[in-house]
Structures are given as structure tokens and as C-alpha cells.
Amino acid sequence: MSKPVRLLIADDDDGDRRHLRRLLRGCGIACEIDEVLGLAEAEQACGAQGYDCAIIDYRMPGGNGLRAIVAIRELSPHLPIIMVTGQGDELIATEAIKLGAADYVPKSQLSSRYLAHVIKSALRKAELERIVADQREELERFGHVLAHDLKTPIHHLQHIVRFIDQDICTGDTDALVLHRKMLLATAKRMEDLINALQNYSMSTRPIDLARLELDQALDGSLSNLAGEIAERDAVISRIRLPAVRGNLPLLTQLFQNLIGNCLKYSGEVRPEISVSAEDQGDRVFVAIADNGIGVPVQQRQAIFQPFQRLHRQAEIEGTGLGLAICRKIVERHGGTIWCEASPTGGSIFRFSLAAGLSASSMLQEF
């Protein structure tokens, strides 16, 4: 563990608290320990402090440990709670686990080794709970905006079909041709949105990573964007990029989305885009800078969320998923991505990746 575990001990017995401290000192886990004597103090401490784990005695002033589990879980839903008791009671143990305790341990079974195992297991469970909760929240938000963004083009299609019916009745072939084009364009936007959704909802299974030259991904993206680059007469400047540990198709898509975004939001000026990178030992930091319209400071985090757009569809086309896909690709590589203002105007998109291992390092790794 990279930092000490912030631990709360709630037990009114002085001897038991001292015993727990001795065991914790010998368990091999660095801990910062606070102590309270009763239920009310435990609730107050959990409400005021951000603990990583709590060890709660079953019998305490102000109520038993089961009440403590309920009260503390309301304040800190993902805080792992370990209940200890002087009596081994299976019914109490079952009830404690049902109420959300990570584990239940009779004091007679406590040892430094066993306590270390229990704490590490509780922390792992809590981390999984947080991941599941975050994914559930993202799924709910995703479903809400998805319903909205799919309904809009569907309603537009319905209107166009009614216009086409009128054109057929009146025999207005010019309007019929126009509305037919509108129908196809709307259907194409729906297809683009569904394709983007498929990319955004990429599998959470581990991706295949290998040492690769980042220039390969950049070259592939520029090839894919060749038509748009020529159409905008864009200037792309670059330096030689270092090797990274990554997935070539996903990193190609990452560059394609970011550079495509720079082209799209260049405004009325000729797009000037530069790609650079800095190798800082075990991490590579990539920067893609443009001279476009920029991103307001209050929007620089929101733009990486799905369906977050700075402009209406009529102003600049898009699905609102391009940067969200970038964030997901970078995070699946264990990196981070962010946006900042460029000193010369426009924006700089930065992201980090694991540096590529040398051949000798890769042999040592295996």
C-alpha cells in the first residue's frame, strides 16, 4: 500500500484497544489510528474524517455494533467495517454481514497475520464496491442522455416523412428531392451516433498491450484524416514520438479523435496543429495543441463526459462522444487526459501513457 491506512477503532475496553494496536503494529500495514469509545463518537468521527477502514466492537456504549454498522454505512457507504467481538456468535456474524460489514472476527482468533489478511480483504471489497457504484452511476447517466439524443433525430425523421407525404400529394418534386436529402443526412447522423456508442461502450476486459512506436498510431490517424486535413488546408507539425506500452488500434483512434476535434473546432482560421511528447522515465506525456476556438475553463472537465457538447448540432456536427471515447481509451491504458489553454490561443489536449519498455526490460519483466 502506497500510503498509511486511516483506521478507526471503536471499542470502550482499554485493554482490547491496546491489544488491537499491538497487533496492528506487527501486521505489516502502515496505519494512522484514531480511537473512540462509543457509537455516538464513532458516527461523529466517520462523519468528520475520511477513514479507509473501521474496526467496531459489537458491544459499545450507546448501542451495539450492528447499529454502528447501519449508522456508519449511511455516512460512508463504501467504508469497510470489520466487527470484532468477545463472543463467537454465528447469528450476529450473519446479521453483521447482511448489514454491510466487510468481516466479523471473534477476538479470540485475532493475530497480527490474521488481522492483516482481514484488513486487506476488506479494503479490496470496498474498492470493488466503489467501482461498481461508479459504473452504475455512469450507466444511469449514460442511459438518460442516450434516450434524449436518440429521440431527437427520430422526431426529426418523423417530421421529414410528413413533409415527403405532402410533397407527394402536391407533386412538388424539388421539395421532395430536398427532403429526401434531409432524410438521408438524419439517418447518417443516427448511424454515426450508434457507431460512436459502440466504441464508447467498449469492453471492460483487459486490452492487449505491447511495446510500440507511438508514431505508428499518429501515422495511422493522419492517414485516416487525410481528406479532412486537405479540405481544411491544415498544417500538422510533429516531432518524433517515443515508444509506449499500448494497443495500436485504440491509440490510433485516440489520435484520430483528438486531431479530428482540433480540425472541427478551428473556427474560421487555417488549422495549425502540433503533436509533441515528453518521455519522463516510466511515463510518456503527449500534447496536441491547436489554434482553434478554445475551451472555456469551466468546461474543460465536462467535455470528456458522454454527450457533452459546447455547441449546438446545427453549429458544429458531432455525436458528443469523441472526447469521452478518448478518455476511456486513455484510462484503459492506465493514463489520464486533460485539456488546458494554449498560451498562443486555442487548446492543448494532454494525455499520459506507460513508457515502452526496452527489450532487456521486457525480458526482465517476464
Q: Can you tell me about this structure?
A:
The protein is of the alpha/beta class and 366 residues long. The chain folds into 2 domains: 5-132, Response regulator (Rossmann fold); 207-365, 2-Layer Sandwich (Heat Shock Protein 90). It contains 11 helices and 14 strands. A 5-stranded parallel beta sheet has the order 2-1-3-6-7, with helices on both faces. Strands 9-11-12-14-13 form a 5-stranded mixed beta sheet. It is elongated and about 90 Å long. The chain starts with a strand and ends with a helix.
| CATH class category of the largest domain | Alpha Beta
Radius of gyration: 28 Å
The rough form would be described as elongated
Q: Into which percent range does the helicity of residues fall?
A: 40-55%
